[in-house]
TrEMBL record:
Classification via CDD domains: ABC_subfamily_A (cd03263)
Top-level taxon: Eukaryota
Protein name (record): ABC transporter domain-containing protein
Alphabetical UniProt keywords: ATP-binding, Membrane, Nucleotide-binding, Repeat, Transmembrane, Transmembrane helix, Transport
The UniProt record lists the keyword Chloroplast: no
Organism in which the protein naturally occurs: Anopheles maculatus
Length: 832
């Protein structure tokens, strides 16, 4: 039985849908929080009403014959009404003195020998302006035909009354047009146009006019022969003014970031929770490829986000207010708005994937994800005020943070809206102004590049640091030939046939005998047994870089056979769980190797046999939201059972066999600890797993439940290789066709229970299930009539354990017959 990748993908979608449906409150939040957050913009839109100008707008005239405007304004710095010029000679003295008189009787002037000296004083004394005619004209004696002059003003605006303008307001001469294009007249209430082109208020136009008139009059040889000149802005046709657009440039990205915040942390939490609870690795153990896991989560999350962004697009592009006739995005193409949010959603999901791979605890991962999410907008917020000075490379580099790329995208949307054209397909590749090279095509490209980068990092970290469980690859595995030519390496001949395995095992046995590690506590291998699992020199050292580290498992060489239950017996810390972890591919072996169903474990070969495995780990690996029946259905389908009638048969069989009929449709988080262990065992056995690992499957169960599990395992061992770990001697005795005794990571003995009893002479154990009225002394006295040296091993809870010496084996039958006849008097309900 095999399951195609498509079937596994659909199965994971079904599982995710069930989980999402049962977290309906979180589902509603994930869909509605982006909508509610963006609804705030609708409220703001309703509060900010665009002004409609039905008549052409005209502006007043500006007198540039004097500096009256400077004297009337409150300035940021005290301005000295002095004009500096260089170089100093009679020609330029006549020009500057004439210009100064035109500007006002209180305007002074001062000459300098060269421009460098003038520049130093300009910086120090805050003069009105400096005039640089060119140092090469220092020795001229007459006015040249062409006069070129550079008018020097401080880079900071001195008359701008905007808050903090002295720190940021400048002439922005590197721009041809304002960065933010508005639909309508710029600064309609200011006749000179206002910031950033304050040529009138700063006195630049007046100084330029005075110098030009002075040169012309001196050239003509007449005074006051030129006409009076005033300035006036061109009239502007009717328009509407929307002040909201400029405010949303910085606000809107923050609203979108908050809108997707819950989806981000929730996605990271759910993905990391599966890793924390070993659900992800358990599914991989039983045949799920890692990439299918990621694709299923991607589709689940994108589906929810697509629903959200569709509603958000409607909110942003439709007029939903009663007092305005415009939407947030009045002009832009609606599909482009949706497409921008869709691409951003893809990048967001990939960021969640990347963050989840760095953590193994869901709560920590979701907390860090929230911090990263908010700080990823920081580059945009830091560069917002200096956007027009940034190069294209700097903007694209900052956009490696997805939220920063989103911020720039929203800014460009608003700029396009300001042109009254909006973002359309025909201007997708064009910047808003000639001064800005960044286009929306760049933003789309960077969001997709971010998504690819985040996904690559996620897949890489998952390979080299899969967490506590999983086989890590070397950090440089992407530079190896085997990674890029896996098919070539897979076609190399591999010695996985049974004859080769037998030869290798024989050679290893001879080696162990020569080193003294192969002892007489090993029973001879069964001649007609079919090997299901073979281990040769299997070793695990967790801190292999430390020479003093002790091996958790040391040179383990043993075979497990089909149609048998092999028990790994040992106390806590003996190495049983580590051995199972290496066999299932959850831990990489430090040395040695193992073969399962003819496939050697290790590296990429792990995936070759995982479809044949069933796994019941030491703790419960269950989905809290799935019911008992849904668990069996999910894992049976994962292992290749496709027909519904067979799936239903599997569910009925294991629910009935484990006594879970009343809990069939109950979610797993409502089950008791013992019932969860039963369900974990059913998950391991369902689907016809040919190799089943059970790590202490009866831990936490009462004696009756343990007996139920024992019976099921005995029934299910046909055509399977079952490996069961335990530290209960009675459980090993009842279940084990063969028992491998481990201590301190080493194999101390292996053989049938009869062989081990004969070898170590520990006797037999009789386990009685007590009723509340049981008197253990009565049971002991009855048995001592036949077995004089019977010993009470334990008397805990409802279980009474007695040891019977082997030499009295002939008396066991009459002793048990009398015990059967007196169960009521002894107060026991059963024994074994």
């Amino acid at each position: 039985m095999t399951t195609s990748n498509w079937d596994k993908f659909v199965l994971l979608l079904w599982k995710n849908w069930i989980i999402q449906k049962r977290h309906y409150v979180q589902t509603v939040f994930e869909v509605t929080i982006p909508v509610l957050a963006c609804s705030l913009l609708i409220l703001v839109r309703g509060l900010v009403t665009p002004t409609v100008y039905t008549e052409p707008t005209t502006f007043g005239s500006l007198n540039v014959q004097s500096l009256a405007m400077i004297r009337e304004m409150v300035t940021n710095h005290p301005i000295s009404l002095k004009i500096a010029y260089s170089p100093r000679n009679d020609v330029f003295e006549r020009i500057v003195s004439r210009a100064a008189r035109m500007l006002g009787t209180d305007v002074l002037h001062q000459g300098y020998n060269d421009s460098e000296s003038m520049y130093k004083d300009l910086v120090t004394h805050n003069y009105l302006a400096g005039l640089e005619f060119g140092d090469e004209l220092e020795n001229i004696t007459s006015l040249p035909d062409r006069v070129s002059v550079a008018v020097r003003f401080p880079s900071e605006m001195r008359t701008t009354t905007l808050p903090g303008a002295q720190f940021w307001a400048n002439w922005r001469t590197f721009l041809i047009f304002p960065q933010f294009q508005v639909y309508g007249a710029r600064n309609i209430n200011v006749s000179d146009g206002g910031y950033p082109a304050n040529y009138y208020a700063e006195g630049f136009a007046s100084v330029q006019n005075a110098i030009s008139r002075a040169v012309l009059e001196l050239r003509a040889g007449r005074n006051d022969s030129l006409p009076h000149v005033e300035l006036r802005r061109f009239p502007y046709p009717p328009f509407y003014d929307d002040p909201l657009l400029r405010g949303l440039e910085n606000l809107f990205p923050s609203i979108i970031m908050v809108a997707f915040f819950y989806s981000c942390i929730n996605t990271v939490k759910f993905i990391t929770l599966e890793k924390e609870k070993q659900l992800k690795e358990s599914m991989k153990v039983m045949g799920l490829d890692g990439w299918i896991h990621w694709v299923a989560w991607f589709v689940r999350t994108l589906t929810l986000l697509t629903l959200s962004i569709t509603l958000v697009t409607v909110l942003l592009s439709c007029n939903l207010t009663t007092n305005t006739k415009v939407a947030i995005f009045q002009f832009s193409n609606r599909f482009l708005i949706w497409l921008f949010l869709f691409v951003y959603s893809i990048t967001t999901i990939m960021l969640c994937f990347m963050i989840s791979t760095f953590f193994s605890k869901a709560n920590i991962a979701s907390g860090i994800a929230g911090i990263v999410w908010f700080y990823s907008l920081t580059p945009f917020q830091l560069t917002f005020g200096n956007y027009d000075r940034m190069s294209l490379a700097a903007k694209l580099g900052s956009s490696l943070w997805s939220n920063t790329a989103m911020g720039y995208g929203v800014m460009l949307f608003m700029k396009h809206e300001g042109t009254s054209i909006g973002l359309q397909w025909d201007n997708l590749l064009s910047p808003v102004t000639v001064d800005d090279q960044l286009t929306m095509a760049h933003i789309f490209g960077m969001l997709l590049a971010d998504a690819a980068l985040y996904l690559a990092v996620a897949l890489y970290i998952e390979r080299i640091a899969p967490g506590q469980f999983g086989v890590p690859r070397k950090w440089n595995f992407i530079f190896t030939a085997s990674f890029w030519m896996q098919e070539v390496f897979r076609r190399k001949p591999c010695s996985n046939d049974s004859d080769t395995i037998a030869v290798e095992n024989s050679l290893e046995s001879e080696r162990l005998k020569s080193t003294g590690r192969y002892h007489a506590n090993r029973e001879e291998e069964p001649i007609d047994g079919q090997i299901g699992i073979s281990m040769v020199g299997l070793t695990k050292i967790y801190d292999s870089g430390n020479p003093s580290s002790r091996a958790a498992v040391s040179e383990l060489t043993v075979n497990f056979y089909r149609d048998q239950i092999t028990v790994l017996l040992g106390h806590n810390g003996a190495g049983k769980t580590t051995t199972m972890g290496m066999l299932t591919g959850m831990y990489p072996p430090t040395a040695g190797y193992a073969t399962i169903e003819g496939h050697r474990i290790g590296g990429t070969a792990v995936n070759k046999f995982r479809n044949t495995l069933g796994f019941c780990p030491q703790h419960n690996v269950l989905f809290n939201e799935l019911t008992v029946a849904e668990h069996i259905r999910f894992f049976a389908r994962l292992k290749g059972v496709r027909q519904e009638v067979y799936i239903q048969t599997e569910i009925d069989k294991y629910v009935r066999a484990l006594g879970l009929e009343s809990k069939r449709n109950e979610q797993s988080h409502t089950l008791s600890g013992g019932m969860k262990r039963k369900l974990s065992l059913a998950v391991a056995l369902c689907g016809g797993s040919r190799v089943v690992f059970c790590d202490e499957p009866t831990s936490g169960m009462d004696p009756g439940a343990r007996r139920t599990v024992w019976d099921l395992l005995q029934q299910e061992k046909r055509d399977r290789t079952i490996i069961l770990s335990t530290h209960f001697m009675d459980e090993a005795d009842v279940l084990g066709d063969r028992i491998a005794v481990m201590c301190d990571g080493e194999l101390r003995a292996v053989g049938t229970p009869f062989f081990l009893k004969k070898r170590f002479g520990a006797g037999y154990r009789l386990v009685c299930v007590k009723r509340p009225d049981c008197q253990p002394e009565t049971v002991v006295m009855l048995l001592r009539r036949y077995v004089p040296d019977v010993v009470v091993e334990s008397d805990i809870g409802t279980e009474l354990s007695l040891r019977l010496h082997e030499q009295y084996r002939a008396m066991f039958q009459p002793a048990l017959e009398e015990l059967e006849q007196n169960v009521d008097q002894c107060g026991i309900s059963g024994y074994g």
